[in-house]
Amino acid sequence: MTESAKQLVLVVEDEPAQAELLRYNLEKNGWRVVCVDSGDDALLMYRETMPDLVILDWMLPHLSGIEVCSEIRKNENGAHVPILMLTARGQEEDRLRGIDVGADDFIVKPYSVADLMERVARNLIVN
Amino acid sequence: MARTHLGTRIRENRKSKNLSQKDLASLAGISASYLNLIEHNRRSIAGKTLIALAKGLGIDAQTLSEGMDTSLIDRVKRSGLKMRGFAIETDRSAEFAARFPGFARLIARLQDQVDQQEQQLTALADQMHHDPFFAEAMHLMLSNITTIRSTAEILANETDVPIDVARRFMDNLRDEANRLSTTVSDVLEHFEPSSETQSMTQGTLSFEALLEQNNHFLTDLEYKTTSADALIENTDGDSADRDKLRASINSYVDMAHRLPIDPFMEQAKQVGYDPLVLAQMLNTDISSICFRLAHMPTDADVPKFGLLQCDGSGAVLYRKQLSTFNLPRFGGACALWPVYRCMSQTGQPVSAFLDMPTGERFYTFSISYPVAPPQIGMPAQNESIMLFTANYELLANANFAALPQLAVGLQCTVCPRPNCTARRDAYLLGKS
């Protein structure tokens, strides 16, 4: 498979070590990866690259993951792109809020890499 | 001690003996419909009828007439129900309390202590759940743990990790472990109770706990089916705590008396829960209206309001939190909240949307008002109040689009907003 034919994953994570880990694991599993560390950059990068899937941290400085998710769904031609939210908030009300703004899946920290990769693969196949 | 009406006692005794109204009426030689009126305290009885009913119930007429402390029986019964696996005859609690009143009081007292400790645990758990610093610290710790776990998984299980990547991962492990230990230390420091904090929390905690257990609506006080004294009766704590609790409950009773909930709900709905219109309509002060709006029964069609009341120094006098809008107990909240800004404009209401860093949006209504008559040479004594809700779609306000939208936080230590001119403390969790 050529590099450009691989599916592209946009990672929005402000913790550098987390972002590096996600990049390492995603690339190892055969996907292309772009990482940004803020909600504002996420929207810019989304417009620029139109990724096949977005991994979005809930807690971001300035623009939150919820706001980014909502914005992608409403204004960025992102009605169908799978969005996986990384969150430390496992409560039902938080989950419902995420679903309300259009998140497809939730990965609650601390998660296992294998589980995360499986969910990325599943969402990409479904899409 | 709380004693029930005679009719209610008859009903309770009848039910505890599994008798129908028809059965007991027949035993006592009266009609079932007459017994029904008696049980609902609509007919007073004495003499022959009382003796006949007592006989039908198999208890002494005097005991039935004078009644037993039902709260004692309830507490004995509850104690038995909580002790599962012991086959306790809870259906005979009334009989037990009557035969062994001393033991019954002992059991009730022990049960009260258990209940009180459970309430304290619940209040503490709730405090931790609503503490913005703790919530943010937990998020950070879980992020640290995720990174450590995932990095360790790779280093332990994969043999083909390039050496430069492996080195970086090792550095990450060290850094994340350091950050984790720093955050844990911060959390421990945060929960180290000062003596001042402990003494301040006791009285207000019990009222807050009482309100939270009842969804901030004390039905029995609203409809006068119990008194403030009855509510306070079983509360432990020293006299100062009980006095504080009594004062808080009396304020609630006063509000419920001045603004009865049923007509208020109808009027509030008609005017879209607008505090200013309601204050004019009901000819009362705006702070009472705000308190009333914050203490309404929970319903899908009714906006859920939170409330913050401060004195002129910004100290918190009263707070009602929402699950997504946590309020500090001792001040130190975001200086951009309109509840503080409106203090410079007494009597001038301020409406604004607050946008939180987490993406939540709240409609707020704030106003400052005098609490003491003006005196020459003395500073004005004002308080301010902020009413807030996330259910603003249920409010009537044609000017929503014109309202300011303020990017705020909860408090600096947990707020990641960069370049905030109102920041007075650093963001403690290392993400700004």
Automatic annotation (TrEMBL), chain A:
Going by the UniProt record, its keywords in alphabetical order are: DNA-binding, Phosphoprotein, Transcription, Transcription regulation, Two-component regulatory system
| GO MF terms, alphabetically ordered | phosphorelay response regulator activity; transcription cis-regulatory region binding
Instruction: List the SMART domains.
Output: REC
- Kindly give the Gene3D superfamilies that the UniProt entry links to this protein: 3.40.50.2300
Signal peptide residue numbers: none
Q: Which PROSITE patterns match?
A: RESPONSE_REGULATORY
The Response regulatory domain sits at 8-124
Pfam family of the protein (one): Response_reg
Read off the InterPro entries from this record. Answer: CheY-like_superfamily, Sig_transdc_resp-reg_receiver, WalR-like
Which residues are annotated as modified residue 4-aspartylphosphate in the UniProt record?
D57
Gene Ontology CC: one annotated term? protein-DNA complex
- Per the UniProt entry, what is one GO biological process? regulation of DNA-templated transcription
Which PANTHER family does the protein's record reference? Answer: PHOSPHATE REGULON TRANSCRIPTIONAL REGULATORY PROTEIN PHOB, REGULATOR OF RPOS
**Protein name as it appears in the record:** Response regulatory domain-containing protein
What is the species of this protein? Paramylibacter kogurei
TrEMBL record, chain B:
Which transformation does this protein catalyse, written as a reaction? ATP + protein L-histidine = ADP + protein N-phospho-L-histidine
Taxonomically, the superkingdom here is: Bacteria
Q: Which GO terms describe its molecular function?
A: DNA binding; DNA-binding transcription factor activity; phosphorelay sensor kinase activity
Keyword Transcription in record: yes
Q: Which UniProt keywords apply?
A: DNA-binding, Transcription, Transcription regulation
Q: Which SUPFAM superfamilies match?
A: lambda repressor-like DNA-binding domains (SSF47413)
Instruction: Tell whether Iron-sulfur is among the UniProt keywords.
Output: no
* HTH cro/C1-type domain: residues covered: 10-64
Q: Name one GO cellular component term.
A: cytosol
The protein's matches in Pfam families, at most eight in alphabetical order, are given as: HTH_3 (PF01381), ScfRs (PF09856)
Q: What is its EC number?
A: 2.7.13.3
Q: Which PROSITE patterns match?
A: HTH_CROC1
How is this protein named in the record?
Answer: histidine kinase
User: What species is this protein from?
Assistant: Paramylibacter kogurei
